[in-house]
């Protein structure tokens, strides 16, 4: 089936960029969480407000990213073919993962050492040294999303290729399309959430407070991450086959976000405002929480996609610029955020001031370095799919050359 989406998909591009930028806000909260230490830097001032923000952002932001990545991934494959798809993804996903990982890992380790020395009164803390982990354990850091995205691309291509060989008449594809329509139009997020809820409930090591555990420390992602983010990616991929289904979420976004808000609130009532670092015991409470959390993941993801379609479908040079910059900013932000958190950690300032300073300075570094080092350079062409000329914003303001991102599936 061929999708009939419009040429310009500014709303979905805004969701993708917003999900990445929210990662900066998310990581900036982590030094301010109350309770036990969960981050390399722990601030002298902490707040339950940061727990709520952390909990809410973690529930949906990466699921939203993978939804859009699936949609644009199939778009790119349809428009460029397999060879063009592989060339584009190798340049814009594989190479950034390979090239940026050692640089960012080194920077993160350096900041961790600095933070530990600072917390220990200026002296290096003593303790057993830990060697480099053996495979499959591997410190992917925040670049795990690129690694997992490659897994999903490979799975999608294998399934697509197998179906084309075994089902040339697309009978199976037709059934899948009908199921997708049914799931979107009738059951809303329930059927999408069910696999993730089961993955949560059946995992004996599940830390319920943290929802989908970040798969950043192993080359074999944890099952809830594969199931939850894989479901979001598959939903986006299948949605591209019949993009008119986006209208369902556009019409129902208030209800979806309302249910999502209820899920967040109820989950927080059940687990409390402080991070809990012990596995959740099996029982009815775990089952109920797993269902509510999984529903929240997809209600927020689909609701935000619908709201974006409602309010952000038109072209905006400012939003386009932010969307272009978001990939670079997300790549570099973690060591920057950690360094800023280390600087302010022992200052006797209110936490809102320190959080705003960390977030604002990290975004300033991100946007500033993007403008100076990326946008008009070869690196910009590498990451964004094209190299912007220094005066390209004037052309964009006049409405020329606006289709490139949508025509090429301009997403990481």
Automatic annotation (TrEMBL):
Looking up InterPro entries in the UniProt record yields: Acyl_transf_3_dom, Glucan_succinyl_AcylTrfase
Segments traversing the membrane:
12-33, 53-72, 93-117, 144-163, 184-202, 222-240, 252-272, 287-307, 327-349, 355-383
Which molecular-function annotations from GO does this UniProt entry contain?
A: acyltransferase activity, transferring groups other than amino-acyl groups
Is Zinc given among the entry's keywords?
no
For this UniProt record, give its keywords in alphabetical order, as a comma-separated list.
Membrane, Transmembrane, Transmembrane helix
Which residues does the UniProt record annotate as the domain Acyltransferase? 10-367
Cite the PANTHER family for this sequence: BLR4337 PROTEIN (PTHR36927), MDO-LIKE PROTEIN (PTHR36927:SF1)
Any idea what this protein is called? Acyltransferase 3 domain-containing protein
Q: Which organism is it from?
A: Caulobacter mirabilis
